[in-house]
Amino acid sequence: MAESTTVSLPDIELFKQQALQWANRFHVVCLLDSNQYPHKTSRSKEWMLAIDAVDEITSSEDSFQQLKAFHEQAGSTIFGFLSYDLKNQTEQLESKNRDDLKFPELFFFKPRYIFEITENKLTVNRNYPETFELIEVIRRETLDFKQKTLATTLRTRTSKEVYLKNIEEIRVQIEAGDFYELNYCNEFYAEGAAIQPVQTFLELNEKAKAPFSSFFKLDDKYLLCASPERFMKKEASKLISQPIKGTIGKGETEEQNQVLKAQLQNDLKEQAENVMIVDLVRNDLARSSKAGTVKVEELFGVYEFNTVNQMISTVSAEMEEGLHFTNALRNAFPMGSMTGSPKVEVMKNIERYEDFKRGLYSGSVGYITAQGDFDFNVVIRSIFYNATQKYLSVRVGGAITYDSIAEKEWDEILLKAKSMMDVLQMAIAE
Question: What pTM does this model have?
Fold first, then answer.
């Protein structure tokens, strides 16, 4: 195995863009970017780019067991994603809705090249002189982007009328005691769309500067993700999950923004949504942890991002001795913030109310070290693109409780979609 080389570069931000464009010629690419987010929600790694596959796996009938075996064989850091529809392997569930994107349910790879940037220092998993040869090739990349998109509008998979009607039906079920909270999502899509994925991601990433941003290419399928949310992190024996529930827009001035943050902090409906998911996450982590170690490190923390303010809570636990890390992932997947409570019942109803297969949306992208430590995001605030089918998709949703007001829930998904729409320079067709 090649050792690594660390060098300093004069313009690290330009190099990041050039490296991603160079990487895009390979069949598989994974970029993880924390955007140097200043708070403790930030990713374990500042910036990592994994390129090309020495070895890889895709989903099987027992994907988590397959992941365990692949990790043991790899002997080094691997990168990949978990699709929401792995729920069908963890519970007695099914997915029958339409799938226009065609991502596999799980994919992991051992990269040929890993570029990592920490505090303006670049580390490459290659010795001298190969590292410097790679750097020179990348620095010759010309960022000459053309028109991003040929499509002008995104259509709504579920019409506003039906979306509002479904929210009222969900509220009736909540009142009847079927469940407490359900994460209900919609899709905005375009057929015949032509975008430049690298350019589009770079613009989205610059706009959002989210701590769990990721770019994932698998052949003709692309994820352009500006996620603010961590699904789960493992560091030694400690597990950390940071669910988001609660969103409000940004103020035009600092004074206005402080008012909005206080409004979110004290919103009883948002608190109720958040605490229900915190309880669910506590239960999920408890399935993998030593008795008595699950704790809420922060409840209702309000964090500021480039485009919105979010309410984030932090739950941690000490993993049970002898438990394999893939069991911790399985026991908590999919994340409670994208399902609701109780988890199995709401996932059955999500399948009934939604008109599309979630796939990688509501899934997770991340890395696993040779020692079994990992960090995974929640795939939200994302643009999905199938280049062969020229199919473009933006998916957004929100938590529905009995106190939800349907029109406000519609407004919230439009707010969440805004940064993607702005980058695409596309509107939602009425």
Answer: 0.95
